[in-house]
Amino acid sequence: MSFRTSGAGRPRLNRRSKLFIPVLIALAVLVGLFLIFANIWTDLLWFRSVDYQSVFSTMLLTQVVLFLLGGLLMAGVVGGNMLLAYRLRPMFGTAMFGQQGVERYRLALDPHRKLILYAVMGALAFFAGTSAAGQWTTWLQFVNRTPFGVKDQQFGLDISFFTFTYPFIRMVLGFLFAAVIVSAIMATIIHYVYGGFRLQNPGASASRAARVHLSVLLGTFVLLKAIAYWVDRYGLAFSEAGRVHGPSYTDVNAVLPAKTILAFIALLCAALFFAGVVRRGGMIPGVSFGLLVLSAVLVGGVYPALVEQFQVKPNQQSKEAPFIKRNIDATRAAYGIDKAQVTNYSAKTEASESELQSEAATIPGVRLLDPSRLSPTFQQLQQIRGYYRFPDQLDIDRYNIDGQVRDTVVSVREIGTPPTAQQNWINSHLVYTHGFGFVAAPGNQVDANGRPNFVEKDIPPAGQLGKFEPRIYFGENSPVYSVVGAPKSAKPIELDYPDDAAPNGQVNYTYTGKGGVPMGSFFNQLLYAIKFGEKNMLLSSDINEQSRIMYTRQPRERIKKVAPFLTLDSDPYPAIVGGRIVWIVDAYTTSDAYPYSQRKSLRELIEDVTTDRRPGVQLPNDNVNYIRNAVKATVDAYDGTVSLYQWDEKDAVLKTWMSAFPGVVKPFNEISAELKQHLRYPEDLFKAQREMLANYHVTDPNAFYIGQDFWKVPADPSSNKSKQPPYYITLRMPGSTTPTFSLTSTFVPNGRQNMAAFMAVDATAQTPDAKLQILQLPSATTIQGPEQAQNTFLSDPRVSSELNLLRGQQGAATGTDVLYGNLLTLPFGGGLLYVEPIYVQPKAETSGRYPTLQRVLVLFGSKVGFGPTFQDALAQVFGTNVEKPPTTGQPNQPPTTNTPPSTGQAPAVQAALQKAQAAYTAGQEALKKGDFTAYGKAQADLKAALDELDKALKAQGTPAPSPTGSPGPTPTGSPSPTPGAAGTPSPSPTTG
CA-to-CA distance for 683 and 397, rounded, in angstroms? Predict the structure, then answer.
């Protein structure tokens, strides 16, 4: 670029440079437009690949139409007023009024007035259009609104008016207010610049044209204000001025009539402003403006304040009671807690032996495997290779195992990052493309070493859950993008799974599914190279005409993209359905515009200890006062297929969205029976409902006003952080004859730690209208709350002593860490039973350490049990051998145990077996009593008996069986049994 000097000595661009700058600007604009096109086109390709193109087209078309309408309307209104102000300028300009300073500005701007006009209109059109396009959800809900069939208690209007219509009216009013205000500002500037106003002495004056123009604009503004006052009457349904959300006594008896009066006053003032068109002088507009301000202060502000101060506050409880009742009813309906069944529960602390035997015969096998503790255990025992990984928080589901439906801890083996030495673009995006396998373990069974008894495991998959497609291309830890697929003649390059017998120690694979976006053409490769900023997509020879690119792979991310109108549960969980691994995600319809309902932050409602363990999950920040589990969604882990099923057929919000996006959500009757077996009551909805029920279990407005019966969710006792999460567990509620897979939580009173209530819901999700069940304890109950129960456990001398023994020598290499599992609460024997598993892991910070289940804590009333198995701990609490349930396995024991044969063995073998069994029994009894001297002697006797048995069996050529059960870890200071002896675990868990 070169310059030349003008006659005045100032540098000027030469002709070539003047042409070069527009070319650069044009190129920049083209590049920007191409980047926008690349983003839009790749989005279209993605929606086509998942068969949800209608969602993309509906959203795009709606946003484009709103952008154009909003932009054109704003530009037309403001631009029209600017042009009108220019045409109404005085004939002789500003010089006749002695405004020489303004004249200079006019002379400088006048040659560029068209450019300025177009620039202002363009900028306003862009910002207004963008703002309007951002309101596409408000528009779609308005035009597709569906009645709730319920009327509000103040205005007698259907709830849909407040949820769908009122927000749209406020949006339109806000847009019109902005257009009128900007028009008035721009018109005033133009009138001033072109002499329509004179501000110099001896006084300000305006031309008739300017005065008429501005009177019309101000009149229009006040007219809009009159409409806004009238509409704001309905906005009182969301008032936050009282003790609860919704209209208070003052709102109904003072603010509501005040807004009606102000609406008529504003209408009168608007007429006075319009009168300025035919009546000269500023008195009428001035009077109207003063009347508007004065009435707003007196009628809209002072009068309601006087009513609040002198009528409400002296009698607030009685005055507010009817309006608190409205809030209670609306909140309970909006959060789906209005049908919660509250039952008074005496919660005994003592029970007879016959009652305990009856309860124990029906109590299910309590889930002792804690999904929040066992990720390292799954990682070490089932990771197989270092590039696979399990999530920090495992999941709970139900599977038919050995003919019985059991609570099962499940997870999938997802792909992680390639080994450090092999990290490059090809390995990261073309080789390490998918995880492999499903892992499951019954929640109430462990082996002799306290490790999960896996019923589905290993690579290739082996177990009891049948055949299924094991590859995980779409998961919570999938790479940002992977390129898969190749012609049949091409050599597979994707790592499928490790196999020591295969060449290079691995089996390779070529993806054959329909997942991902075809990117074989050079044009698509170019677009995706731009999208992901990766030139290798254009240069790599491994990308061919059969290649497909997979991105947006996390289940929640995929569902959110195809259904942006849904709020998703924070915990997707995998299940085997129809021979495929699918991710199941609960989806909610929410609103913040349900009249009279209490508005809360959804993030605060669902936050607890488990959300802290999911750092990658973005919790919603919305404020809501209505929520429904309206949709059950699935994502196929192999091909990424997204399926949305209508779950709540009564939800008006979902019906509205189904009308806006027809065919996107499948009807309820298309949910397969197999999928329905794995659906469950959603955790986040349950958390929101328990937070609301902490206060809104109180339905009497006077008791609600006092608030003395309010509850709270206790802190998590195992970590003393955040709130205790709800737990999935199979239990039998009082009055029921069969155990049910349930979601449970507890409450404690505000300011105290004893138990206030126990809440559960049938989590099998066979129907969308499962009812919450609350067992409310007497206010003077002595039943301990979770934090008190944990304190009782830890302060028990025997428990404390044995935990210290489990820990071993602190600081030594053989020391262990004791980890507390989930503290479960369940109704039992007319009271409440606490159950807490105890895990042990090596203290040494090694990559191979993992927790194993070693003890179980039980509390009933004030009695503590602490044993190697749940049944042992129960027996300690109730002073009798509680019968083992016939339908479940026993935790901390092998699922199959060998017993001493009574016949068919040599006398020497029988004698040795009897000695071994007697020594084992004596050791267990000594361990229960805390007599470690006797325990050590029993272990020595057990070793001697096993040695004797080994000799006897060798004499007849038979391998030695193990005694029944498992003695648990050896206490410090007691004789050690023979290493590797059957049924005897070592003090520290064995790394896998």
Answer: 13
Instruction: Write out pLDDT tens, residues 293-312.
Output: 999 999 989 999 999 999 99
- Give the tokens for residue 536: 């290798």
Entry pTM: 0.84
Contact indicator for 901, 887 with CB cutoff of 8 Å = no
- Describe the crossing of helices 53-87 and 136-143 by its angle, rounded to 10 degrees: 110
563 CA to centre of own chain:
15
Give the SS3 label for residue 713.
coil
Is the same domain home to 770 and 858?
yes
Q: What angle do CA 846, 851, 857 make, to 5 degrees?
A: 150
In a domain, 706, yes or no: no
Q: What angle do CA 810, 816, 821 make, to 5 degrees?
A: 125
Rounded CA-CA distance 428/415 in Å is: 10
Nearest to 394 by CA among 416, 415, 371, 414: 371
Residues 420 and 392 in one domain: yes
Contact 561, 552 (CB under 8 A): yes
Same domain membership, residue 431 and residue 536: yes
Instruction: Among 527, 552, 577, identify where a domain stops.
Output: 552
Residue 721 sits in the same domain as residue 804: yes
* Position 362 confidence tier, pLDDT thresholds 50, 70, 90: low
920 vs 287: CA distance, rounded Å:
101
- DSSP 8-state secondary structure symbol assigned to residue 112: G
Q: Are 446 and 892 in contact (CB under 8 A)?
A: yes
Can you give the residue range of the structural domain that contains 19? Answer: 1-35
The domain boundary residue, chosen from 893, 922, 945: 893
Asked whether 484 and 516 are in contact (CB, 8 A), the reply is: yes
Instruction: Tell me if 164 is assigned to some domain.
Output: no
d(CA 161, CA 168): 10
Question: Tell me: the pLDDT tens digits for 614-631?
Answer: 555 667 778 999 999 999
- Strands 341-344 and 772-776, by their bridges, are parallel
* Nearest of 365, 363, 439 to residue 395 by alpha carbon: 439
| 42: pLDDT strictly greater than 50 | yes
Q: Is the dihedral of CA 543, 547, 552, 555 positive or negative?
A: negative
Residues 885 and 925 in one domain: no
Least confident of 64-73, 157-166, 309-318, 344-353: 344-353
The total number of residues shown for the chain amounts to 992
Residue pair 883/875 in contact (Cβ under 8 Å)? The answer is no
Do 968 and 949 share a domain, yes or no?
A: yes
d(CA 326, CA 16): 75
- Asked whether residue 356 falls in the same domain as residue 398, the answer is no
The C-alpha atoms of residue 72 and residue 125 are separated, in whole angstroms, by 6
CA 675 to chain centre: 21
Q: How far apart are CA 374 and CA 393, in angstroms?
A: 8
- Contact between 837 and 853 (Cβ < 8 Å): yes
Spacing of C-alpha 937 from chain mean position: 54
Identify whether 689 is part of a domain.
no
Quote the pLDDT of residue 812: 53
Span 91-107, average pLDDT: 58
The answer to whether residues 429 and 545 belong to one domain is: yes
Structure tokens at 210: 């300017």
Which alpha helices (H) appear in 516-554, and where do they start and end?
Answer: 522-532, 536-539
Query: Residue 881: which pLDDT band, with cuts at 50, 70 and 90?
Result: low
Do 840 and 819 meet the contact criterion of CB atoms below 8 Å apart? yes
Taking CA atoms, 386 is separated from 376, 407, 412, in Å, by 13, 29, 15
Q: Which residue is it, tokens 């927790």? A: 851
The DSSP annotation for 168-205 comes to HHHHHHHHHHHHHHHHHHHHHHHHHHTTSEE-STT--E
CA 782 to chain centre: 36
Q: How many domains does the chain have?
A: 5
Residue at 56 is within a domain: no
Between the CA atoms of 413, 419, 423 and 426, what dihedral angle is there, to the nearest 10 degrees?
Answer: -50
